[in-house]
Structure formats: C-alpha cells, structure tokens
Design brief:
The chain is of the alpha/beta class. It has twelve helices and 14 strands. Bound molecules: pyridoxal-5'-phosphate (PLP).
C-alpha cells in the first residue's frame, strides 16, 4: 500500500473507508438531517466556536472564495498578509472579485510579523478586512495567529482566516482568537476524502454580509444558514464525504482535541529532528515550523524530482514537491490527520536510503 505523506489529501482510517461504500440516501430526508446536524455540532466543538459552522461542497479554495464574496464589496480595501503560495491565492480571489488588495508580504519560510500588520492597518484606516493564512502549507510555516488577531482586532477589522491545513490539527480557538470566517477542508487533518469546505461565520461577518455586494450564488452563507435550519444544505452535498466526516469527527472527539494537537506537535517535532539527523535543513524558520507539514531545503546535490520518483516507484512513499517558485528547491512531508511518530520514522528510514541515490552528498 502506498504511504501517502503529502499535505492533503491525507489517508483515511479504515472506519472512514467503510462508510464510503454506503448506499446514497435522500439529502432532504431525516437520516441526512441527523447526520448533518451531528457533523455540524461536532465541528463546532473542534473549531472551539459558538459561531455558525457550514459545510460547503467544494474544495478549500471554494471556502476561501465564500469567505470573500460573503463579506466584501468591490472596491473594499483588504490587507493581504501573505507568507507563501496560499496567501497569494487568497489575495488573488479578493482581487478577482474587485477588492482593492494591499499586499503585506513576508519572505517565504518566515512567519508574518504582527507589528507590521498593525502598522499597515494604522497607515490605511479604510482597510475593511485582513486575509491571513494560519498555516502556510507551501512553506511549512505556522503564523502566530493569536498576535496577528490582536493587532487586527485592536483596529476593529474583519479577520478572514485560511485555516485549511491547521484546523483540527493545530490549536486554533476560533472564538478566542476572534476569527470572523475560518475555513478548512475535509481532506486535511480531518481524515476524510476531499469534497467539503467547512467554514465558521461570526456575528461580525454576518454584519458584513448584510452590506457585501460581491456577486455570489452557490456560496451564499445566508442560503447555507436557512437550509441548515431545516437540516439540509442548499445544493446537493458530497453525501459520501459527509458520511466519512461523521465517522472521522467521532474518532477525533474520542481522541480529544488537546490530544490531537499534542500528537501533531510530537509528530512535527519527530519529522524535524529526523530530517536534521539526515543532514538536511528545514526551509521554515524553526520557531514557527508547522506541525502539519515540513518543508525541507534541497541541498548538497540533491535532485528533488529524482528523489520523489525513487521514493514513489521503489518504496511507495509519496511526498510532495515545492510549488511555484519553490519547485525543485524544496520538498514537503505532510503529517496531518491519521499519522503517528512511527509513520514518520518509516519515512525518515526510507529517505536515508534514497537521498544518496538522488545525488545528496555528491555536490562538488
Ligand atoms: C493553506 C491552504 N490554503 C488553501 C488550500 C487550497 O485548498 P484546496 O486544494 O482544497 O482547494 C490548501 C490546500 O493545500 C492549503 O493547504
């Protein structure tokens, strides 16, 4: 069996796989209503929120688009706090829908600086919302969201958070950190297949929704809310993924959120130590290295493409390469969801064999 160690989709436990073969049910019937209500209640616990939480059928990017079109109007000024590929994507969506995006970029591999966020907001009082990525999957960096949130809330702005690869794995108390919209995706730490974006919506986000003029139909939070009151979704949902999520959320609540967060922290540490023991170095600034994905610099003659190929073909271990400008320069190990320290030890052992075969150590 392949060992899928990319930062999503992540492997599903057998309990989850089993329900994926269940027959379809009426998505407007009582059985689905009970499942949807149960999933929503469990998600609220794991998001640590009393806000509304919706299941949107689509990938995480759909959830990012939903956050923007439900809270903003064309011409609104938005501060984009970006530390990598996904920060840029969030900004690109806002721009596409007519927001005036003010970029605040940090060097890839580094976290955002909360003081710089505060200064940018003070410099432009008309900014309405701040876009921020909690965990930047492209660089393996976790932002200090609590500090960024303090800066954003001091100046009373809307805080839209891409938490796609952090929620459910890394601590993110949505209410305590005043996230107005937080977005995640079923295929990440949630141990379910792709197909659902899960979003929380605060009172402040609802107030913004009242005046938000960006075009929206499929993603309209008001429709999601009115249908959820009947135990439904406005459009046909990814029923099988909802079945899967229902089981994986039960498993997560049985493990307990603090234990899940602690396990990801141990697994993240084991990955970083294992990588360093091989003579490789981390791409991320270690103080902010992510506990769900580790990005590793290509160095010392390593041919990343060749390494990924040997890992895949000879060892059935699937790791991720770098994205965009980081292609060929880094590789990434996903360690979110259904993963243990032993799984990581296995990856490190295989890397020890494959690295020299892929040129590592041959640099002249
Ligand atoms: C931080 C982050 N944002 C956005 C996305 C995009 O999500 P999706 O591929 O589900 O659209 C991802 C997926 O890797 C991600 O990790």
């Amino acid at each position: 069996m392949e060992k899928l160690r990319i930062p999503g989709p992540t492997p599903c436990p057998s309990e989850v796989l089993q329900v994926l073969s269940k027959q379809m049910i009426n998505h407007r019937g009582d059985e689905f209503m009970q499942i949807l209500n149960g999933v929503t209640a469990k998600l609220k616990q794991l998001f640590q929120t009393k806000n509304d939480v919706f299941l949107l059928t689509g990938s995480g990017t759909g959830g990012l688009e939903a956050a923007i079109v439900n809270t903003l109007s064309p011409g609104d000024k938005v501060l984009s706090v970006s530390i990598g590929v996904f920060g840029e994507r969030f900004a690109a969506i806002a721009k596409q829908f007519g927001a005036e995006v003010i970029p605040l970029r940090f060097e890839w591999g580094k976290p955002a600086d909360a003081d710089a966020v505060r200064q940018a907001l003070q410099a432009e009082p008309k900014i309405k919302a701040v876009l921020v990525t909690h965990n930047e999957t492209s660089t393996g960096v976790t932002n200090d969201l609590a500090s960024i949130s303090s800066a954003v809330k001091e100046l009373d702005k809307l805080l839209l958070v891409d938490a796609i690869s952090s929620l459910g794995s890394i601590n993110l108390p949505v209410d305590d950190w005043h996230c107005d919209v937080a977005i995640t995706g079923s295929q990440k730490g949630w141990m379910a297949p792709p197909g659902l974006a899960m979003v929380s919506v605060s009172q402040k986000a609802w107030q913004a929704h009242e005046n938000a003029k960006m075009p929206r139909f499929y993603w309209d939070f008001a429709k999601a809310k009115s249908y959820l009151e009947k135990g439904q979704t406005p459009w046909t949902p990814a029923v099988s993924t909802v079945f899967a999520l229902s089981v994986s959320l039960e498993m997560m609540l049985n493990e307990g959120l603090p234990n899940i967060v602690a396990r990801h922290s141990r697994v993240g540490k084991a990955t970083r130590e294992g990588i360093k023991s091989l003579g490789l170095s981390l791409f991320a600034q270690e103080s902010h290295a992510s506990n769900t994905v580790t990005a590793i610099k290509s160095s010392n003659g390593l041919d990343v493409k060749k390494m990924l190929q040997i890992l895949r073909e000879e060892h059935q271990v699937i790791l991720a390469g770098g994205q965009q400008d980081l292609s060929g320069k880094i590789f990434r190990i996903g360690h979110l969801g259904w993963v243990t320290e032993d799984d990581i030890k296995a990856v490190i052992s295989v890397l020890k064999i494959v690295l020299p075969q892929a040129g590592f150590g041959n640099a002249s």
